[in-house]
């Protein structure tokens, strides 16, 4: 198999195809710290895309409770166990020398592509049983009884958190590598991963191969279906978007304002073109406050997460890699520019391709972990694909009082 560069791993790896050049890459950042588990995103997606016969068990977007929940059941635990069994004791990181090309250090273990036999299977995976899809909210709001050993505040002894999941539209998709019909492809204009259902024969190799289990079999059509990243909205062809790239349904419906979507320019080797004015590039590469989910799988996913502050670090290291400690430190004590950028989350349905911050006056001072932090009423401005301003938000949110007598029942 060809060698491709995976910057999440900090090294080259084996993959079935050469790296495909995309003009831009669909990507997003989810802030776990803000999620209230309301499932509004889940139902927005369900009511738009998967409400028909044969799609009853399809949830392209879901929010699951960790450490116990999962859809399908225990999807991540089962694959992690298979990887450990195939390379016992070797699935480790060397985080001693991070760099711009390897921001998390180097993964010295083996990916789902490198542990496959290459003949019977192109990707190491497993095929879930139907019953594993029947309870998408299993263990919802269910906290672990086990203490966070050796942890200090703000980590709690009893803890859980919500994990928001959609298709990661990976740079090196497991589903694409495994399909014997070559029915799965990445769009060159935005990197969105789609299924050509005229070629699909329902072999379910993609379902077996996707480490995140976001390709799903539809029995009524005997084909695979998956999240399409609401591509008519992203490309601006949906009549409701006024011709401008607009956030997906799950993003635009988010009540907790945890999601920020953009498209980033990419290099031929799959790395992101340096652009600190792009909000996602700034969060992922400059501040490094947002991390990929299970980067050790090797797919180079394009959905990133700001890790939850209260969860034991050992659990988060396995899930998001060795960048967890620095990411949480930067989020807990944000720089002035980062604090302003965090206000841009869900501030507009138009996708922000760039941003700017106008500095304002100091309005408050707080203490975090014994450290005094000055707060400034800075203004963050989001710009669309044409460079036109779409939204501006202040750090100090204004308070509006309704005039007259309140209606009380």
Commentary on this structure:
The chain has helices at residues 40-49, 75-86, 174-178, 205-209, 231-234, 249-252, 279-286, 313-320, 324-332, 336-341, and strands at residues 3-6, 11-14, 24-31, 62-66, 93-94, 106-107, 161-165, 184-186, 193-195, 215-218, 223-226, 259-265, 291-292, 303-306, 354-358, 362-368, 371-376, 379-383, 389-394. The chain has a single domain, classed as Alpha-Beta Plaits, CATH 3.30.70.20. The strands form eight sheets. It has a four-stranded mixed beta sheet. The chain has a three-stranded antiparallel beta sheet with strand order 15-18-19. A two-stranded antiparallel ribbon has the order 1-2. β1 (3-6) and β2 form a beta hairpin. The chain is 17% helix and 21% strand. The chain is globular, with a radius of gyration of 21 Å. With 409 residues, it is α+β, with helices and mostly antiparallel strands.
């Amino acid at each position: 198999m060809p060698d491709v560069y995976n910057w999440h791993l900090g090294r080259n790896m084996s993959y079935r195809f050469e790296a495909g050049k995309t003009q831009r890459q669909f990507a997003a950042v989810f802030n776990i710290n803000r999620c209230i588990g309301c499932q509004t995103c889940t139902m927005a997606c369900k009511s738009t895309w998967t409400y028909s016969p044969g799609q009853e068990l399809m949830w392209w977007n879901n929010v699951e409770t960790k450490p116990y929940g999962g859809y399908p059941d225990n999807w991540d635990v089962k694959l992690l166990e298979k990887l450990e069994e195939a390379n016992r004791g070797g699935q480790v990181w060397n985080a001693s020398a991070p760099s711009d090309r390897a921001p998390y250090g180097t993964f010295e273990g083996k990916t789902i592509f490198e542990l496959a036999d290459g003949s019977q299977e192109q990707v190491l995976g497993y095929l879930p049983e139907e019953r594993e899809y029947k309870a998408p909210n299993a263990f919802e709001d269910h906290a672990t009884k086990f203490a966070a050993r050796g942890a200090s505040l703000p980590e709690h002894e009893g803890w859980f958190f919500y994990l928001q999941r959609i298709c990661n539209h990976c740079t090196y998709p497991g589903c694409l590598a495994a399909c014997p019909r070559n029915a799965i492809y990445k769009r060159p204009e935005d990197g969105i991963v789609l299924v050509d259902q005229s070629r699909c024969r329902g072999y379910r190799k993609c379902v077996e191969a996707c480490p995140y289990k976001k390709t799903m079999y539809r029995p009524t059509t005997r084909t695979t279906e998956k999240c399409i990243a609401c591509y008519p909205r992203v490309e601006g062809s949906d009549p409701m978007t006024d011709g401008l790239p607009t956030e997906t349904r799950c993003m635009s419906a988010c009540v907790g304002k945890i999601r920020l979507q953009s498209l980033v320019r990419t290099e031929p080797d799959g790395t992101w073109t340096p652009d600190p004015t792009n909000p996602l590039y700034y969060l992922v590469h400059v501040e490094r406050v947002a991390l990929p989910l299970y980067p050790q799988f090797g797919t180079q996913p394009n959905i990133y997460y700001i890790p939850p502050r209260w969860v034991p670090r050992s659990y988060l290291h396995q899930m998001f890699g060795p960048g967890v400690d620095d990411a949480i430190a930067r989020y807990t004590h944000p720089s002035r520019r980062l604090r302003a950028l965090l206000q841009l989350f869900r501030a507009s349905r138009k996708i922000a391709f760039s941003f700017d911050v106008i500095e304002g006056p100091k309005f408050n001072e707080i203490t975090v972990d014994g450290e005094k932090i000055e707060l400034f009423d800075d203004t963050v401005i989001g710009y669309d694909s044409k460079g036109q301003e779409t939204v501006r938000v202040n750090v100090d949110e204004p308070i509006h009082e309704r005039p007259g007598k309140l209606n009380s029942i």
